[in-house]
Design a protein that fits this description.
about 190 residues, disordered N terminus, rod-shaped
């Protein structure tokens, strides 16, 4: 750019000469000077490498941070969901197993007629909830739980108590608790 300014200025003045062209060449430097000054090449290369490694380090740091954060989130989510998932799996497994048995075998296992009917009701309720729906119910309960934890207990104590009773995760856990109580009452006969 500077060379073009010199050309424009000298052309506008009208005094173009070989001296001006030599000055112009001196501005850009001579190729022979590059070989004689290896320190400037090393400095440029050092600055380029430093910039490149700085950028690479920054990117790697961001990537590592994302991976660590994702792993931590997974660990927390796993701890939260494993308890509810295990209970839900037990309820589905037990009710499905009882549902597959012939009526005569169920009568032998669960002698109390009322308990047997309640187990069948739980089975129908559990079978009506698909895995996807159970996951949505659990996800909604986590979101509501996060919202309630962010509220102050004194200001919203009625909402928190109502949530604990009406909680969607309680829908999943209530089937487990009901089945557990029924099975403890009836004392299954396993031979």
């Amino acid at each position: 750019m500077q060379g073009s300014k010199v050309d424009v200025q000298s052309t506008s003045k009208g005094n173009i000469s070989e001296d001006n062209l030599e000055v112009e060449e001196d501005i850009w430097g001579d190729d022979s000077n590059d070989d004689s000054n290896p320190e400037s090449n090393l400095t440029r290369e050092w600055m380029w490498r430093q910039y490149r490694f700085h950028t690479m380090g920054y990117r790697e740091g961001i990537t590592e941070g994302k991976e660590a954060s994702a792993q931590e989130g997974f660990n927390i989510g796993f701890r939260q969901s494993v308890r509810v998932g295990k209970k839900w799996g037990l309820v589905r497994g037990i009710t499905s197993a009882i549902g597959c048995l012939p009526e005569s075998s169920v009568e032998k296992l669960i002698t109390n007629i009322e308990v047997r009917e309640m187990v069948k009701e739980i089975q129908k309720a559990v079978q009506s909830i698909s895995s996807d729906k159970a996951l949505r119910i659990y996800h909604e309960s986590i979101q509501k739980g996060d919202l309630l934890r962010s509220m102050e207990y004194d200001d919203h104590s009625e909402e928190i108590l109502r949530y604990k009773v009406d909680s969607p995760s309680n829908e999943l856990e209530s089937h487990y608790n009901e089945l557990l109580q029924l099975l403890c009452k009836s004392v299954l006969r396993l031979k």
